[in-house]
Amino acid sequence: MKADIQIAQEAVLEPIAKVAESLGMEEDDLELYGKYKAKISDGYWKKIEKRPEGKLILVTAINPTPAGEGKTTVSVGLGEAFGRLGKKAVLALREPSLGPCFGMKGGAAGGGYAQVVPMEDLNLHFTGDFHAITSANNLLAAMLDNHIQQGNELGIDTRQVVWKRCLDMNDRVLRNIVVGLGSKADGTVREDHFVITVASEIMAVLCLAEDMEDMKARLGRMVVAYTRKGEPVTAADLRAVGAMAALLKDALKPNLVQTLEHTPALVHGGPFANIAHGCNSVRATKAALKMGDYCITEAGFGADLGAEKFFDIKCRLAGLKPDAAVLVATIKALKYNGGAAKADLKEANPEALRRGIVNLEKHMENLQKYKVPVVVALNSFVTDSEEEVAYVRDFCRERGCEFALAKVWEKGGEGGIELAEKVMETLETKESFFEPLYKDTLTLKEKIETVAREIYGADAVSYVSAADSQLKRLEELGFGQLPVCMAKTQYSLSDNPELLGRPEHYTMQVREAYVSAGAGFVVVLTGAVMTMPGLPKEPAALRIDVDGDGVIKGLF
Q1: Among 84, 105, 393, 473, which one carries the catalytic annotation?
Q2: If 0-12 CB within 10 Å is exposed, 13-18 middle and 19+ buried, where does residue 364 land?
Q3: Catalytic one among 354, 381, 393, 399?
Q4: Is 105 a catalytic residue?
Q5: Is 94 a catalytic residue?
Q6: pTM of whole model > 0.90?
Q7: Mean pLDDT, consecutive 10-residue segments, the chain of 556 residues?
Q8: Which member of 37, 39, 94, 221 is catalytic?
Q9: Contact of 328 with 379, CB cutoff 8 Å
């Protein structure tokens, strides 16, 4: 089998204008970024906003393992399979972050014959959205420090500056820094921090905003610091909203690209699900719902993170109602969860499969709590035996979940026909009665403990003293009605990445909480999760190069 990048580079792409024509779009509906990428104009949304909506399908997965689960690959292949069945499907996916592209994962545009293209553009600078978000974030940081330097009219307590700078790269040495060193003209000396761009509140704001007016209102509400009296200081107080909006004007527009089989894909926004809300933009999702009969979207990492935040944050705030959820798993990942070593995952190991399938079981139970029909998609590998597949199939059906094999990595849309037919059958025969997991009226601690107990399987939650004080203060400031965005390791249902399978009888620790008032949620940090990742010992960047003809190698 060829490498993903080789398959992508050998593909024959259609001009994006032709892909747009298949959706009934006209030339003025697009803002072209070369031949194969475009942004959707604001005028196009006005044309389609009164159209009826298609079906909303969420693709999520079990907890990620070194074996790989292929959530985005299955999302892409499912969209291609709908096309082969004569159905109009539009994908709504997130943009990849440069951090993982040069860090541990490599590319993030699907894989094999189920990819979004142009793959290199998508994984690198694309249309510049992340650069715009980074610039807007750091403009606000600069204006904040300049305000303090120029007399501090707002009375900001420099010990309570909470706005962090950002960079779309894994750079651990920037997690905790000191700024303002040098002469008096160089600013006030204070501790500062960086987060990765995909964890920036501006990323969340862009992804949750309905339009420019809504985005500006959200930008204005963002809390950047507190005064000496303990009152919040916002971006609006610093008069920074207009300049940030100018930087974000084009980034707010969804991007249109295509899959290897020319299925339309809106790829827009990219918050991480382990440290942010993990979903593509509301604008892209709502546009896809109007543009096709089926909108296929995905949420980051496992269902305990991405799906929970899709349901409890994105759907709650945007008024979306999902019609079905597809839960992706692999035999290899289930065996890894059952204690099999990575090197042995190709070997038959019924006992490890039996032990590890409890991870899948918990995710099925979690999705069913949202009253949404569930289809388990087993992402197929040639090393899977018929007995292993039969065991997983029976396990799912016994627990009220539909099941289908997906062979999209190898066969593209053809390999997704079984899954697409099962999803369509589920949509026709089972109704979604979706509702979020908790009510807005619960206290912040009650919301945290509901997620920890119901989704993560924890017996209890403990709070370090600082987090306890922060939660009380946030409620005093009027933020108690907001949903919670849990920052947690992606590798386990628990806050301990070493606890695989289905951890039970443990206490989850909350170490910090802060408000993202513009996004509209309270971020809760658990365990040792980091908002600025670091590079691994052998980063993917070591394999990436470009030859004399300008062809990129080794991206994935």
Answers
A1: 105
A2: buried
A3: 381
A4: yes
A5: yes
A6: yes
A7: 87 96 94 97 93 97 90 96 97 94 78 94 95 98 98 97 97 97 95 96 98 98 97 98 98 98 97 92 98 96 97 98 98 96 92 97 98 97 93 96 96 97 98 97 98 98 97 97 97 96 97 97 95 92 92 86
A8: 94
A9: yes
